[in-house]
Amino acid sequence: MAEHSEESSSKPVSLMEKIVDKLHGHDDSSSDSDNEKSEPSASSIKANIYRLFGRERPVHKVLGGGKPADVFLWRNKKISAGVLGGATAVWVLFELLEYHLLTLVCHCLILSLAILFLWSNASIFINKAPPRILEVSIPKDLAVNVALSLRYEINRAIAVLREITSGQDLKKFLAVIAGLWVLLVLGSCCNFMTLFYIMVVTLHTVPVLYEKYEDKVDSFAEKAMTEIKKQYKVFDAKVLSKIPREPLKDKKH
Fold first, then answer.
1. HEC sequence for 174-186
2. Which residues does 100 contact at the CB level (< 8 Å), separation at least 6?
3. Residues 6+ apart with CB under 8 A from 154
4. Where would I find the Reticulon domain in this sequence (predicted)?
5. Which residues contact 207 (CB under 8 A, 6 or more apart)?
6. What are the tens digits of pLDDT across the range 32-62?
7. What value does the mean pLDDT of the chain take?
8. DSSP string, 40-63
9. pTM passes above 0.70
10. How buried is residue 71: exposed, middle or buried, by Cβ count under 10 Å (0-12/13-18/19+)?
11. Nearest-angstrom CA–CA distance, 185 and 22
């Protein structure tokens, strides 16, 4: 009788354990489904975040990826510091010390040719091998590819200028005029070497700072773009809409 009572008491316990396990399994599955439902919502919220210039890719991909992007974003600090230090040395040499480019090239060529010439002749008396001078030649495929790329960029620039002068896109026209005006002001303040050095320093500082403070910059840019659009609408309503425009005539081919 005691054994029978123990078996009867163990059955309810096992049934209760099964019910509890099923309930836990149902809760886990429901929580997993809730997590799966929340993931798309999080991704959709992330996709709706405003990004500067409407970009959809990371900063590294926008800069072209590869080694140049690594240099601009300081992924390899030694190379980035070397490039920035070399540009600084060149700027100090030509701007602060007023050393001329042609003079520097001639001095370097005279020094290198003199060293190689003396080494080649002195190797006979020193009983050492003469210097190995590498044969350098530009491959035909590389020259053709560079020429084709340059031709493509020039044609694209000409097409953009033609589109701007046609008077169909006012925003692009104003953007180009503003960019040329900024270059005009910078050109009047500094020469080409200083402007080139400013560009190098900007490329080595602005992208890495933007990548570090991306969210703050994008939120500020969103507010600024909203305000600019409001001001542009006011300017369009008061000024641009009152400018008379002639209808485009159909061209006869």
1. HHHHHHHHHHHHH
2. 94
3. none
4. 68-253
5. 59, 63, 72, 73
6. 444 444 444 444 444 456 666 566 677 778 7
7. 76
8. HHHHHHHHTS--GGG--S-HHHHT
9. no
10. buried
11. 75
